[in-house]
Specification:
The chain is an alpha+beta fold and 263 residues long. The chain folds into two domains: 7-85, no CATH class; 94-261, Glutaredoxin (3-Layer(aba) Sandwich), CATH 3.40.30. Helix content is 60%, strand content 10%. The protein has eleven helices and five strands, in the order H-H-H-H-E-E-H-E-H-H-H-H-H-E-E-H. Strands 1-3-2-4-5 form a five-stranded mixed beta sheet, sandwiched between helices. Strand 4 and strand 5 (243-246) form a beta hairpin. The two termini are 30 Å apart.
Length: 263
């Protein structure tokens, strides 16, 4: 799963925040110095002197850095959550209501779970049985929509095009599960894709032709564009209502589904 940032960048942001805060404090202290003061000996301090006091205070109380990191982390999480909700609302129809999307579960299910995935993603592979079982687990109240997001490129993209093309023959989910069931990414080859397709009753020649078609190429391109718009930084990425769940976090996914069901 891709990582959005590093601890180093977070620390740098926290330090910058501290610098800004204490620079502001220094300027405020200077501004509040009595206008009648004649010089530094009578109590006036210039900016450099105040900043030196601030520097010494930080060195004597280094825990303030940790406090700033905590505060910055909380702020970033809140901002990210708000941005995610806005993005979901903006792209809700493309996310949940595209007629061309493939899914498992009843079309009129109360709750829709959307999964963005890559066929070479280990966490996606380990999650496939759980994801496939969701409609039955929730007595038909949940459906799962699949969005191809071949972040690793190369053969992952080929597999995505093959799955979407198999979908034109009514074999999307069978192809999807079979590709996910490959134990090693080394097994995902052009030849193996064709072998899998043939084994589930797909016309391989037609599949290969459809993989080059504008329709399938555009369908995959639209999925990747939607992933970028929703800031899906890695796979799997799940969406339930206005909630974006990063990674194969079963607990969060379950909680989001239950919240949507009101249970």
């Amino acid at each position: 799963m891709a990582v959005r940032g590093t601890r180093c960048s977070t620390i740098e942001k926290a330090l910058e925040m501290i610098r800004k805060l204490f620079t502001a404090a220094a300027l405020t202290a200077i501004a509040l110095t009595p206008a009648c003061a004649q010089d530094s000996s009578s109590g006036n301090m210039d900016r450099a002197e105040v900043e030196q006091i601030v520097r010494e205070y930080i060195l004597e109380n280094p825990e303030i850095i940790e406090d700033a990191l905590v505060a910055l982390g909380e702020r970033q999480r809140a901002e990210a959550a708000a941005a995610a909700v806005t993005a979901i609302e903006t792209h809700k129809d493309k996310l949940y209501n595209l007629a061309s999307d493939h899914f498992v579960g009843p079309a009129d299910a109360e709750v829709t779970v959307v999964e963005f995935f890559d066929y070479r993603c280990g966490f996606c592979k380990r999650s496939v049985d759980m994801i496939q079982a969701l409609p039955k687990e929730y007595d038909g109240k949940v459906r799962v929509v699949f969005k191809e997001l071949p972040i690793f490129g190369g053969i992952s993209e080929t597999a995505s095009l093959a799955a979407l093309s198999a979908g034109k023959q009514g074999k999307y989910n069978a192809m999807h599960v079979a590709l996910m069931d490959l134990k090693s990414n080394d097994d995902l080859t052009e030849k193996r894709i064709d072998t899998i397709a043939e084994s589930i009753g797909v016309d391989v020649k037609k599949m290969r032709a459809d993989m080059k078609s504008m329709e399938i190429q555009q369908q995959l391109s639209d999925m990747k564009e939607l992933g970028r718009a929703l800031d899906v930084g890695g796979t799997p990425g799940f969406f339930v209502g206005n909630t974006h769940i990063e990674g194969a976090d079963t607990a969060k996914l379950t909680a989001a589904i239950k919240a949507e069901l009101g249970s």
